[in-house]
Write a structure and sequence with these properties.
The complex is a heterodimer. Chain A is of the alpha/beta class. Chain A is globular. In chain A, strand 1 and strand 2 form a beta hairpin. Chain A has a single domain, classed as P-loop containing nucleotide triphosphate hydrolases (Rossmann fold, 3-Layer(aba) Sandwich). Chain A has a 6-stranded mixed beta sheet with strand order 6-7-8-3-9-10, sandwiched between helices. Chain B is α/β, with parallel strands linked by helices. Chain B has 2 domains: 180 residues, P-loop containing nucleotide triphosphate hydrolases (Rossmann fold); 79 residues, no CATH class. Chain B has 10 helices and 11 strands. In chain B, the strands form 2 sheets. Chain B has a 6-stranded mixed beta sheet, with helices on both faces. In chain B, strands 1, 2, 4, 5 and 6 form a 5-stranded antiparallel beta sheet that branches. In chain B, helix 8 links the parallel strand 8 and strand 9. Chain B is globular and about 60 Å long.
């Protein structure tokens, strides 16, 4: 479904060059959830943005990307933009503060010249577990978890095949995180969606995905199945250290931490 | 362990008078703190940060703090003068905030900020203060203290910024540290390294720590004792080791709704909130 070969992303010019993604390759099958894990600055979000085609004006992107047999060009096709949607991390920053939920949800439908917009909006709200009374509210009138549900509904409006999830629950309380993760799992089952999930939380990735890549300094350190992750059978010291760290505070283990550069 | 009490809080209330009515941020929190690591865990809006701020008299304007007892080593914090409070803040109880980007002064060098914290509470010469600052920077595992001393906050990483915060809060040698989400903005490995620094210093100096966080796993593995807060109240208190056997449905719900590394991909149990957990309106406790 998704195939990325030798992706490189470089920001800036001359002496201020920053090589954010180095030779990243990955492939995701239809109906799969694929995790991208790493610490801040590892390039995981940049991979997602490069795939979505929202980096072209900001960076030099090279490499080959194919989505559902369509080779991606610098300017994405209209159908690509409909079939691939994105959900962002921050439910406060990613919804227009002066647009109602109704405007937010109907905009992508209008852009893609879809019919029956009103029905689609109501249906999408239903799908994410919000009733029609949310339609005419503003983002500041609803909670963080509800806002993230609206973000998911906005992604669903165009009936996409692929949703790119950029830390979809890291700004939420754990009880709300559980609700949103359950929602994403259900939507995937019901619509046969394919996900790429970017997260720094190994437990969230283990819960959602079948396979994952661990990134560090712009490169993929290791690609493994979630089964291997659960069995702690990773071979790379960097992955092992991330795993140890995600298990909680252990004074003796911390002294053995290394700096990976 | 907590036979020598550092801090005693009894029936603490924090209320805000807002245009839409009275908001009870904290309603009836009681606990004692000894030489230990006490964790306060809760979701956003549970009142955990408000509890920490009320102890230091840092409640925002418009808020009212009341308590039957709020005592730090025999001093009543409720009717202490502003002069006494200034002595206690930093000197007796200090606070580590969440984000070093916002809580360090951007136009002062790291060294002079740490020195200032020391000079306000102790009478020492500039030269001694500088020596102590270097010492402190080394103690929080900063490798090149001379370089960092001269650096400005924007020139250091998040993890280092938080170590600098710890150095600044430790240098006047307080008895209690209140850490409000001290590592939530950091990557996991850096987070643990910063906590290790904090842990070692607290143990060596025999201080008390109030660790406020939303991260249940972290608190359970880092602290000795845990208070679980919901809607301004402590719904449950337990030792960190007993968290898995917690009794209150809210605590159990929180523990269960976390995805686990070794768990399956089944539906996560969702926390069902019971109105009976809420503080009844008009109740005093």
């Amino acid at each position: 479904m998704i195939d990325i070969q030798g992706l490189d992303v470089v920001f800036g010019h001359g002496r201020k060059v920053f090589h954010a993604v180095r030779d990243v390759s990955l492939s995701v099958e239809k109906g799969q959830s694929y995790g991208l894990v790493g610490e801040s600055g590892s390039g995981k979000t940049t991979v997602l943005r490069a795939l979505a085609g929202i980096l072209e004006r900001l960076a030099r992107v090279s490499g080959e990307m194919t989505v559902a047999e369509e080779t991606l060009l610098r300017h994405r096709s209209q159908s690509f933009r409909r079939r691939v949607q994105m959900v962002f991390q921050d439910p406060f920053g990613s919804l227009h503060p002066r647009h109602t939920v109704d405007t937010i949800l109907s905009e992508p439908a209008r852009v893609h010249k879809l019919d029956r917009i009103e029905q689609r909006v109501v249906h999408a709200l239903e799908e994410v577990g919000l009733d029609a009374s949310f339609r005419f509210r503003y983002p500041h009138q609803i909670s963080g978890g509800q806002r993230q549900r609206v973000s998911v509904a906005r992604a669903l409006i165009t009936s996409p095949e692929i949703i790119l999830l950029d830390e979809p629950t890291s700004a939420l309380d754990v009880s709300v995180q559980a609700e949103v993760l359950n929602l994403l799992m259900r939507l995937k089952r019901e619509h046969g969606l394919t996900y790429i999930l970017v997260s720094h939380n190994l437990a969230v990735v283990a819960h959602m995905c079948e396979s994952l890549s661990v990134m560090q300094n712009g490169a993929v350190v290791e690609t493994m199945s979630v089964q291997q992750l659960r069995e702690h059978s990773s071979t790379m010291p960097y992955t092992q250290q991330l795993l140890t760290a995600s298990l909680g505070y252990d004074r003796t283990a911390i002294d053995a931490f290394e700096e990976f550069a | 362990m907590s036979d020598s009490k550092l801090l005693s809080v009894e029936d603490l209330h924090v209320t805000y008078n807002t245009p839409t009515g009275l908001v009870r941020a904290v309603s009836g929190v009681s606990f004692d703190l000894g030489h230990e690591k006490l964790g306060i865990v809760g979701e956003s809006g549970s009142g955990k940060s408000q509890t920490g701020r009320a102890i230091l008299g840092l409640t925002a304007t418009g808020g009212t703090v009341g308590a039957r007892r709020l005592e730090f080593k025999g001093t009543n914090l409720l009717n202490a003068s502003e002069r006494t409070m200034r002595q206690i803040r930093g000197g007796g109880i200090s606070m580590i905030m969440q984000d070093p980007k916002y809580s360090l002064n951007p136009v002062m060098t790291v060294g002079s900020q740490i020195e200032e914290a020391l000079l306000i509470h102790n009478r020492t010469s500039k030269r001694v203060a500088r020596e102590r600052t270097y010492e402190m920077l080394r103690a929080v595992k900063i490798r090149e203290p001379e370089r960092v001393y001269k650096a400005y906050p924007h020139e250091v990483s998040g993890g280092m910024g938080q170590r600098i915060m710890i150095a600044m809060m430790m240098i006047p040698e307080p008895d209690i540290i209140i850490a409000d989400e001290p590592t939530s903005a950091l990557d996991v490995t850096v987070q643990l390294q910063v906590l290790a620094v904090l842990d070692d210093m607290i143990r060596e100096r025999g201080m008390g720590l109030i660790f406020i966080s939303h991260d249940l796993n972290l608190i359970a593995s880092f602290c000795d004792r845990i208070l679980i807060m919901y809607d301004g109240r402590v719904v449950e208190e337990c030792t960190a080791a007993e968290l898995e056997q917690a009794q209150h449905p809210y605590t159990r719900g929180l523990v269960n709704c976390l995805p686990r590394l070794d768990g399956g991909q089944d539906e996560l149990p969702v926390l069902k909130r019971d109105p009976s957990w809420l503080t009844p309106p008009g109740a005093t406790r």
